[in-house]
Design brief:
The chain has 85 residues and is of the alpha+beta class. It has a six-stranded antiparallel sheet with strand order 1-2-6-5-4-3, with helices on one face. It has two helices and six strands; from the N terminus they run ββαββββα.
Amino acid sequence: MIEFKVEKCRTKATYSAKPKQQLKMDLNKIKSKFEVVLETPVLLVIKAQGVEAIVHGYGEILFKNCKDIELMTKIAEEIYGSGAR
């Protein structure tokens, strides 16, 4: 299991999940398991459990318009479980 922490971003505008170790994300695997809102070569914007999340290829996940840390933690576990390599 990937160890990560969910906390407010530096700007305090949103929350993010960051892995404790360096990793790469397989965006194609993630794309096949979640509803994709936007796709670029370096990141995906997905919708999971009603929350939009920006998944970067280097492992950081930004959550848009969500303040429920428990829900964000569950979503991050799903994303890391399906796409971390």
